[in-house]
Amino acid sequence: MSFIQKYRQLGTNSRLYLFFISFFWLYGFFGAFWRRIGVEPNIANSILLFILAVASHGKWRHKIHLSDIAFYFLFVCLYFISTIVYPISKGLVIHFAYEVLLVTVPFYFVGIIFKAEEYSYWLVLLSRLSIIINVVFTLILSSQSSNIVEEMHRAYLVLPSVLYLLWRMFESFKKIDLFFFAIGFFMISSMGSRGPFVCVLFFAVAYLFFFKEWKHKTVARIVLVVIGIAFYVLSSYFAIFMVQLLGSFGFSTRIFDSMLGDALLNYENSNGRDIIQAELFQQLSMDYRGIGYGLFSDRVFSSYGFSAHNMIIELWFSFGYYIGSAILGFLLLLFIRFFVRVKDNQIKVFGLIFFTSSVIKLMFSGCFILDGLLFFLIGYCVNGLRTSKTKTLFKGAALEPKI
Fold first, then answer.
1. Distance CA 359, CA 195 (A)
2. 3-class SS shares of the chain: helix, strand, coil, % to 5
3. How many whole angstroms separate alpha carbon 324 and alpha carbon 105?
4. 58-98, pLDDT tens digit by residue?
5. CA 13 to CA 257: how far, in whole Å?
6. pLDDT digit string (tens) for 347-392?
7. Which pLDDT value is given to residue 339?
8. Which residue has the higher pLDDT, 305 or 352?
9. Residue 260: pLDDT over 50
10. Rounded distance, CA 53 to CA 57, Å?
11. Half-sphere exposure of 13 (CA within 13 A, CB side)
């Protein structure tokens, strides 16, 4: 059955919701399109996402609770109160207010209403389209320059699609999925940023060890460990091959150069991140109040004017060791509860995809308060726990003996 026939089978609400999911899945690429034609991407994307969400409300009505709205307004109040508590970062907090409060944090509501399990067919097509768009962008750039250096942003844009196709391969192997995954993984590996490459490895290991339903779990895990050791031993040969291949096309070989130097997870090739983080830790040691320096303050104290490129350090620097660790602990508890209590494996896989694309990514780059996928993940986990609790209650009620 063709995708046109499948589309015709959808009802009006399902079609509108499909448009909403499609726009969300390709959100970053639409941003690049608006930027190219001279339109402010954050404004255009936010308006369109809001319109599509409202238009498809028939698929998600009653999902947003009063507590969700209260959370948003509480966040807004605390955001502006922080300018009083942390005057040193007041200018940056006000400067980023629009992007944080009207673009990033609303992704919490997108996570609440996101339910794509029944749209898996369409997400496969969207993931392939995402990779095709990325290839086209790369060809355009390569026609303008003989060498393509670090393209971290585009690598992260295509990451969820690559992870989704990888999961599909693990569940039901298809050659076409392998083809598109190989292209996507090649593109990620050629863009000079270690973060997306490490994210793919993390997702593969986490899924195969903790989420994949094996018939003989212990045997399967032993085999995976043996394969992992063999890959590590032979990784230098793989890295040499990739350096030669990528170099012949004029792509960045930075990731595999670092593999050859055993520095993939070290800071030797961190583009100054080691210097920034050393400065921040030194400043943090002088935090006599014990409550940090406020949101975006890492940009104030780093000599480069950049963020810490590490979510944990950002939380500590923004709120101090105690409050920052408490926030981190709350988030980890939320994520752990989600993965333990939610029984639907496909829902958990989406959670793992977005956990990898946000939390693991934020260990290498980006800023947590400007990362829409992090707030999406929080909303997605909250809704997953609510749904799981509701199902448990209904199941318990059904088992009650009738008098």
1. 11
2. 75, 0, 20
3. 18
4. 888 889 999 999 999 999 999 999 999 888 889 999 999 99
5. 50
6. 999 999 999 999 999 988 888 999 999 999 999 999 999 987 766 5
7. 93
8. 352
9. yes
10. 6
11. 5
Q: Is 290 left (phi over 0), alpha (psi -120 to 50) or beta?
A: left
| Tokens coding 101 | 């409060």
- How is 143-197 classified by DSSP, letter by letter? HH-S-B---HHHHHHHHHHHHHHHHHHHHS--HHHHHHHHHHHHHHHTSS-HHHH
Q: Which backbone phi and psi does 189 adopt, to 5 degrees?
A: -70, -20
CB 316 within 8 A of CB 284: yes
Query: Letter for the amino acid at 318?
Result: S
Contact predicate 96/126, CB 8 Å: no
C-alpha 354: how far from chain center: 4
Residue whose tokens read 């990514």: 361
Cα gap 388→288, rounded to integer Å: 44
**How does DSSP assign 205-272, residue by residue?**
HHIIIIIS--SSHHHHHHHHHHHHHHHHHHHHHHHHHHHHHHHHHTB--HHHHHHHTT-SSSSTTSTT
The one-letter amino acid at 192: G
What CA–CA distance (Å, rounded) separates 339 from 270?
32
Q: Are 276 and 214 in contact (CB under 8 A)?
A: no
CB atoms near residue 211 (< 10 Å): 16
pTM of the model: 0.87
> Exposed, middle or buried, 361 (CB in 10 Å: 0-12/13-18/19+)?
buried
Structure tokens at 210: 């903790």
Cα radius of gyration (the chain): 22
Contact between 55 and 20 under an 8 Å Cβ cutoff? The reply is yes
CA 191 to chain centroid, in Å, comes to: 17
Q: Are 269 and 254 in contact (CB under 8 A)?
A: yes
Of 90, 187, 53, the residue nearest 132 (C-alpha) = 187
Query: Both ends of the chain: CA-CA distance in Å?
Result: 50
Do the beta carbons of residue 342 and residue 384 sit within 8 Å? Answer: yes
Residue reference for tokens 């995809």: 353
Which residue in the block uniquely carries the two structure tokens 């015709």?
8
